[in-house]
Write a structure and sequence with these properties.
The structure is a single chain. This protein has 7 helices and 13 strands. The chain has 259 residues and is α+β, with helices and mostly antiparallel strands. The protein has 2 domains: 199 residues, BirA Bifunctional Protein, domain 2, CATH 3.30.930; 46 residues, no CATH class. It starts with 7 loop residues before the first strand and ends in a 6-residue tail after the last helix. The relative contact order is 0.14. The model has no long low-confidence stretch (mean pLDDT 92).
């Protein structure tokens, strides 16, 4: 049977077979592609067909990789990680904070390779002023009950696919990254409830924007995150809780003097 248009299967990933990647990551199934439209789309199709939690889709290159807000995500063959993980959580409150929880788990794993790694609300990993990775969570629902979520993750391991991006500068096998990262993601997806005080404290320690002036999603100074994942911004009229939008620093907008 021919592969769907635009999907080119791969026999291995940094020298490891799909079975070996699955074993090392502790997941039931791994699908490898050298090229695919989007790992997110493949994962959603698999989940709709009954794929079990823990099914992992990995691609060397994506033709239409996507990030948050409809933005694209570029992948460089051999130098990035582009993956999507199927999970079937049962707690809507936990899904609401999942992208932040995943960011924390990723930072704890990856900081050994990049000690300066920080999290940026709501779903980015940063080194200095440049983005090194991003998280995208898409849920499918049956009424008010979650049916499945697909966790999309892109990471620049040893390539900088676009100007101004950053990388881990890790020269080892990407499977080494995955075997630590995927179990951490699965633990994040299995958690219940909103962010705990310990998680919020951890976020404050790793927060790229902490104490910095922003103009979006509100004008003020970033002070952390709330239990439900809202960004807390101190504005002229007091603290504000921002539940959506993108974070833009005042210095990036050229508007710092007007805060």
């Amino acid at each position: 049977m021919d592969a769907p248009l635009g999907r080119v299967p791969a026999s291995g990933y940094d020298g490891a077979s799909a079975g070996e990647v699955a074993r090392r990551c502790g997941v039931p199934s791994v699908l490898l592609f050298s090229e695919v439209g989007s790992t997110m789309d493949v994962a959603h199709e698999l989940a709709a067909d009954g794929a079990v939690a823990g099914t992992l889709v990995i691609a060397e290159q994506q033709q239409h990789g996507r990030g948050r807000g409809g933005h694209g995500w570029q992948s460089a063959a051999g130098g990035t990680i582009a993956m999507s993980l199927i999970e079937r959580p049962d707690d809507p409150a936990a899904i609401g904070v999942l992208s932040l929880r995943l960011g924390l788990h990723a930072a704890r794993v990856l900081v050994q390779h990049a000690p300066d790694l920080l999290v940026k609300w709501p779903n980015d990993l940063m080194r200095s002023e440049a983005k090194v990775g991003g998280i995208l969570v898409e849920a499918r629902w049956h009424g008010v009950t979650p049916d499945w979520v697909v966790i999309g993750f892109g990471l620049n391991v040893r390539e900088r696919p676009w100007p101004g991006s950053a990388a881990l500068d890790f020269d080892g096998s990407r499977v080494e990254i995955l075997e630590a990262l995927v179990p951490a993601f699965r633990a994040a997806a299995a958690a219940h409830g909103g962010l705990t005080e310990a998680e919020r404290s951890d976020w404050r320690r790793r927060d790229w924007a902490a104490g910095r002036a922003v103009v979006m999603p509100a004008r003020g100074v970033v002070r952390g995150v709330d239990e439900d994942g809202s960004l807390i911004v101190d504005g002229a009229a007091g603290p504000m809780r921002c539940t959506s939008g993108s974070l833009v620093l005042a210095e990036e907008s050229g508007d710092a003097t007007r805060l």
